[in-house]
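Hi W., the 2-acetamido-2-deoxy-beta-D-glucopyranose complex you wanted:
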Amino acid sequence: MRLERLLLFIFWALPRFGKNQYRTLQISETQTLNVKEEEKLLLKRQGVRYFDITNFPSLFKTNEVKTVPEYVYPVDLINGDRVSLALTNVSTKSMYDDLAFFTSFYTRYYKSETGYDSAVWLSKKLKNVTETLGDKVSQLHIDHRDWKQFSIIVQIRGVKTPEKIVVFGSHQDSMNLILPSVMAAPGADDNGSGTVTNIEALRLYAQYLTETQDWPQNTVEFHFYSAEEGGLLGSLDVFTNYASDNKTVVAMLQQDMTGYVPDPKNEHVGVITDFTTPAYTKFVELVIDKYLSIPFIETECGYACSDHSSATKNGFPAAFVIESEFSKTNKYIHTTMDTLDRLNFGHMAEHVKLIIGTIIELSNWEFKLKVAE
Ligand SMILES: *[C@@H]1O[C@H](CO)[C@@H](O)[C@H](O)[C@H]1NC(C)=O
Ligand SMILES: *[C@@H]1O[C@H](CO)[C@@H](O)[C@H](O)[C@H]1NC(C)=O
Ligand SMILES: *[C@@H]1O[C@H](CO)[C@@H](O)[C@H](O)[C@H]1NC(C)=O
Ligand SMILES: [Zn+2]
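Structure:
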């Protein structure tokens, strides 16, 4: 009897210890580290960025690197009228209200109870802004095995070539780097601002579709990843599954911090040029030139700096645009001081224009692979 109990306990305990004890982190193309869960936090405080690849070791074998196919993107942007129409109702108030609510959760740390509650709120909000689309829209929750905060995918299925998927991503979690399970992390800029930018763009696009019935030929998806701060865990789950399901993502645009303007006299957005896809990034720069009222500066953010890296790692083209040149981004992130009053909602509206311009230009674009010369 007692032996039985002991065995039962061992069977119960083993996977739990085994699973949580060590994590494998990829910190560059060629280096991995095995660390305890607590040590992840130490590394993050030191500014080390990583993929937590514990669940996907094969993805990172150097002999199995997935190449990103090169698609042709538009070079003439000819949809100015449709883009202006879709942007008619862009509202800094609506973004302010959303972010005020989103940052009212004590923390959106992905392992916390309030991190789950914030995902539930986000899901309801996304239902609300897309409800006029009826059955043309669907919402999927991605439950992750090891933590509670789910990722969310909103999909507007393409009417002609639904297998071609254009993705707009952001992450919903926040984190206090000192004591994540205990201390507050309003996470207004990092990375609530990216989430709210995507909510506003989706709200406008849904209104535009309702009014014009100009349904996209390609599938359009908005992704809200959980657990970015834990080593891109949510987006790794999503894109690794997309790859194993043989899905075709033709373009992924990540927005992360979008609300901080370090120098109002030199307002701009930062276009990330490392670990992103050059052809798609060039197209995104054209969209900025044509549809934003501020310029861009090219900048680098290092290995695994946000969720777009989970897309390219799985062989999908991706671009990443951030609030400014990387070295000047918001210094208050990951603290209790990452708050609303430090953000500029006009600047966030510029990031919304980027999404709307990209959606309208790509929704009916006939994607073809570039033919080698
Ligand atoms: C969606 O939100 C708006 C504004 O908050 C509200 O007026 C409306 O009733 C909501 N709709 C649903 C179905 O919840
Ligand atoms: C702008 O908002 C108004 C009022 O809600 C709505 O009737 C109109 O369809 C919207 N326009 C566009 C282009 O979405
Ligand atoms: C994906 O494609 C591979 C290779 O063509 C095939 O072996 C596999 O069964 C496909 N998987 C799914 C889920 O369709
Ligand atoms: Zn962060």
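The first helix runs from residue 2 to 21.

W.
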